[in-house]
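stuck on this chain:
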Amino acid sequence: MDTGIKPSAGKIVEMLEGRSISAIALTHAHGDHAGAMKRLAARFGVAVWCGAADREAAETGRLVLSPKLNRPRLTTVGNAAAGFDGTPVARTLAEGDSLTAGFTVLDTPGHSPGHISFWRERDRTLICGDVFFNMHVLTTIPGLRQPPDLFTPDPAKNRESERRLAALEPGTVGFGHGPVISDDAARKLRDFVQ
């Protein structure tokens, strides 16, 4: 799954040492999710996979920015702050692709053009990346929120993805930002999108 920021690599290596890793499957190509992918892919000798519309960003380390940031000087600043070392993508993932542990890929664009989520029907587990945040980005206080528009190229499409994921009625939801929800998750997502 996602690799976090560049400095996360050492801690992730420690946590995964001795485990079998077959690939890195990114929910999306932003620096806080793909920052350590190059180092981890090399360390574990695994391929990187991501959504097709995020492939270029994953390979170049230059993310797709919101129109608010997509101006010459702001693009440079945005990529310097949130960019990462690009890595070749061995496989692009699309709706319905199967992953390990029973997860299936869902196309959930908006926060990035190729954002994907991972769904496991048998126990209703959802890993939604940044379609939702479960914390305030500045205060870190838990609670469902939309991702910041500044880093979301298509907020309207992201809201469509939010409604789609809420309709799955997940029992457990993991986020890129904020704690997992496993207590009444379906109702919490449903109330949020309404």
About this structure: The mean pLDDT is 92. The first helix runs from residue 9 to 16. The two ends are 29 Å apart (CA to CA).
